[in-house]
Structures are given as structure tokens and as C-alpha cells.
From TrEMBL:
Stretch forming the signal peptide: 1-22
Pfam families recorded: SBP_bac_8 (PF13416)
Keywords: Signal
InterPro entries per record: Bact_solute-bd_prot1, SBP
Protein name: Extracellular solute-binding protein
PROSITE patterns registered for this protein in UniProt: PROKAR_LIPOPROTEIN
Length: 445
């Protein structure tokens, strides 16, 4: 992450602009306030967010009397539960001042308990952010509960060296993976050609199923209790396409993050968050100890042929507990600094996310600060650019406890996928096996 050394005179001007409060500030340099921060950036390895926190604390934070302290790292799927536990007085957790989470998790904490960022940012400031990203963190009554600092979507990432061998033998090209039908056909052909290996591990299969169903005209397939309508035929057929492939071992639900399975050669490819690029190595190390170059290839999310393409608009936002105005001002100062255009571009380019400011996406085309291997990041942002231009973004579900239900579903599928391919290979009907996975989905309440 690039460091910025500002002249003292310009630094003073910047401090005044960042605070947005002038002489009315509640911050005191000689009596600093500490902001406890929970985030999801970097659970698997060293965190670019932690580096930014250190930079803030040693510069603007030091000069204004604000110290940000990272007190917990989690995953996006788990952090909502941790926040609720802390709010309820859990023995091991204290409620943070600032945190990343999804809107449903924020709403579960009680909107009245959270800072409305519109109280701390002017409309002129907010007009510089992508409207859809702001809407993704806005409650039904218009309160901006989660401030966008980055957004992700789902992409296809592949061991290019292994795919070249498959392509040469079977004639499958990357272009064939552009549609869901082509993707699942390639998965079946790879399984047959490789002697039973799995083509792809999916990190968020339910979202892939949802997007295909919506592209096919499913309409609303959610129930009032925040799950899926078992009577929606289009949604079920979308699920069954995935489930048939799962039952035969063509695809799997990832152990947690598909990049690990790609890097060990367990699968050829992964379908997951654009941010997963942060965790890919430049080599594949097979379980027998042999290695080969990864030559990572990144492609857009498959889409339904002949239909308007949809993409998930994912990623957490920054929420803050409503305690004192001093802490709210301190949190707003950090958020304003964090989303400064050049700094935000640096952050997303290092982590595989999309920038949140209008026009910043175009600046990535000429960006020269990608980490190595830079070609993989260039491919990633080329794929994201294609999706930004050709796909319509769709926000993720906002139901309370939705992600905990999804976690139960994935755990169940991971258990089933250990046995289903063997049963399919022994002659059991694939559709019947796929129906077992549908029954699992319908059983979750």
C-alpha cells in the first residue's frame, strides 16, 4: 500500500477538510479517543485493511486524537452472529464501535442503535459515491446504516496450466464457460476426461442458483420467513441444474474458500468472490508434492444464454454503534479518510474489490500498482469491467438470519457431496439424488 507524506501546511488543510466540523470538533489531540474496529478484510492472511489502520493512526489519527484499534477479524458470514452475541453481553466479546457487516445483520442490531452516516456526511460528499452502493447500505426508512468502502461480485478463477491441457484434449475454450449451460457441460466433460476429478468448487452456490433463476424469469422466490419458496418451479429447475452436477461430482461446495482447493489441485477452478484473488498463489502444489505454475485465469460469472445478465452486488459496509457524538465523529473521520479516491483505489486494487466512487473504476485501466502477478489482477479488472458494462447488479437478500440459514445449507451439502457421486457412479438415478439436495434446502426453516 502506497504511503503518503504530506507537507505540514497541506496536512493542516486536509485535517480541517476531513473532519467536516471545523472549530466545532469534539476531538482532542491531547485526549485521544479509541475506536474498536471489527472487519472481514484479511481473515486468511495479512490484511491490507490493517495496514491502512496503521497508516491512519500514525498520520491523521495522531494529529486529531483518534486511534483505531482492530479488535476482531471474522468472515462476512460469521460477523453478524458475533455482533449479536456482543450486543447481548456475551462473555468473551465486547461490542465494537465500528464494524463491517451486511445490512440484514445491521438491522438485527436495531437501527436506533446505529449511526446514520447521513448525519456526518453532506449530500455533496455522498453524491460522489456510486448510488447503488449507497442504496445497498440504506434501510427502508432511508437511514444510511452501512457506508460503502468496497464492493465485490462473483467471478470464475481457473488454474490456467491445467485448463490448457483439458482444452487441448477436449476442445473446451474459456469462451464456452460464458453461459451456465456451457459451464456445466465443461464440468461434465472435465470429470470424464480426468478420470473423476472435480471441475469447480463454488463458494456461494445458492447465489449462482438465484441469479440464474432470476435471469430465467422466476419472479420473487423468497418467503416471508426469509427462505425459498418450494413451489417456485423456475427456482427449483435452477437448483436442480446445480444439484445434478453436484450429485455426479462435477462440482462441489467449497470447503470454505475455493482458492485453497484450486491451489492444491483438488479442483481445476473456483467460482467465488472477486476478492479471492488476494489469496491465490502463483503455483499449484498437488498432494503428491509436485508443482506447476498457476497461470491464473479470471473470467466473468457465467450467465443464461439469451437473457439479460445479472451479477451479485456483494460486500459488507461499515456500520458504527451509536454511543457518543465524539465517537461518531471519530468514526466518520476514519471513514472519510478511508474512502478518499486515491486511497480507495489503492485498497480495492490490492484486494480484488470494486471501488465505490463514481469514475474510479475507469482509473483502474491505467493503474500500475497491482501486486504480483499483475497479469492476474489485470484480467480480474477486465472481467469486472465487462460485468459492470453488460450485467445488472442485484443486491443480496436482506432477511434476518439469512446467512446463518445458508451456512446450515452448505454444511449439509458438504456432507452429502461426500457420498452422492459414489451413489451416482453405482447406478442410482441422478435426478433422484438431486432431489435429496432439494429436500435439504426445503427442510431449513
Amino acid at each position: 500500500m502506497k504511503k503518503r507524506f504530506l507537507p505540514l501546511l497541506l496536512s493542516a488543510v486536509l485535517l480541517l477538510a476531513l473532519s467536516g466540523c471545523g472549530e466545532d470538533t469534539l476531538l482532542e489531540k491531547n485526549d485521544p479517543v479509541t475506536i474498536d474496529f471489527w472487519h472481514v478484510y484479511g481473515e486468511q492472511s495479512g490484511s491490507p485493511m490493517d495496514a491502512l489502520v496503521q497508516e491512519f493512526n500514525s498520520t491523521i489519527g495522531q494529529d486529531t486524537g483518534v486511534r483505531v484499534r482492530v479488535s476482531n477479524l471474522s468472515s462476512a458470514a460469521e460477523i453478524g452472529g458475533f455482533l449479536k452475541e456482543a450486543q447481548n453481553g456475551g462473555d468473551l466479546l465486547n461490542m465494537p464501535d465500528l464494524f463491517t457487516c451486511h445490512l440484514a445483520d445491521a438491522a438485527a442490531l436495531g437501527e436506533e442503535n446505529l449511526v446514520d452516516w447521513r448525519d456526518w456526511f453532506t449530500e455533496e460528499e455522498l453524491s460522489d459515491f456510486v448510488p447503488g452502493f449507497l442504496e445497498d447500505g440504506t434501510s427502508a426508512d432511508g437511514r444510511l446504516l452501512l457506508f460503502p468502502i468496497s464492493k465485490s461480485t462473483q467471478l470464475f478463477m481457473c488454474n490456467g496450466t491445467g485448463f490448457d491441457r483439458f482444452s487441448e484434449a477436449c476442445g473446451v475454450k474459456y469462451e464456452d464457460l460464458a453461459t451456465w449451460d456451457g459451464f456445466y457441460d465443461a464440468a461434465a466433460r472435465f470429470h470424464d476426461w480426468s478420470g473423476g476429478r472435480t471441475f469447480c468448487a463454488l463458494d456461494y452456490p445458492i447465489r449462482a442458483v438465484e441469479l440464474r433463476a432470476m435471469e430465467c424469469g422466476s419472479g420473487n422466490f423468497y418467503t416471508e420467513n426469509g427462505w425459498y419458496d418450494p413451489n417456485n418451479a423456475v427456482f427449483k429447475e435452477s437448483w436442480m441444474q446445480f444439484a445434478r452436477a453436484l450429485a455426479q461430482g462435477h462440482v462441489v461446495v467449497s470447503d470454505l474458500y475455493s482458492n485453497t482447493q484450486v491451489m492444491t489441485g483438488e479442483v481445476l477452478s473456483g467460482l467465488g468472490s472477486s476478492a479471492a484473488i488476494l489469496y491465490y498463489n502463483d503455483t499449484v502444489t498437488y498432494r503428491d508434492g509436485t508443482q506447476e505454475p498457476m497461470d491464473l485465469h479470471v473470467r466473468p460469472m457465467p450467465r443464461t444464454a439469451g437473457r439479460d445478465a445479472l451479477m451479485t452486488q456483494a460486500g459488507v459496509g461499515l456500520g458504527a454503534c451509536r454511543t457518543t457524538d465524539q465517537k461518531a465523529e471519530a468514526a466518520a473521520l476514519f471513514v472519510r479518510w478511508l474512502t478518499e479516491p486515491e486511497r480507495n483505489l489503492d485498497f480495492v486494487a490490492q484486494t480484488g474489490y470494486m471501488p465505490v466512487r463514481i469514475g474510479a473504476f475507469d482509473d483502474i485501466e491505467n493503474y500500475d500498482g497491482f501486486p504480483e502477478p499483475a497479469e492476474s489482477y489485470r484480467q480480474l479488472y477486465a472481467a469486472l469491467k465487462t460485468m459492470r458494462e453488460d450485467y445488472t447488479p442485484v443486491s443480496e437478500p436482506r432477511f434476518a438470519d439469512y446467512y446463518s440459514k445458508v451456512s446450515v445449507l452448505y454444511d449439509g451439502l458438504r456432507q452429502m457431496q461426500q457420498e452422492l457421486p459414489r451413489r451416482a457412479a453405482s447406478g442410482e438415478d441422478v435426478d433422484a439424488l438431486a432431489e435429496e439436495t432439494w429436500a435439504l434446502l426445503c427442510s431449513i426453516r
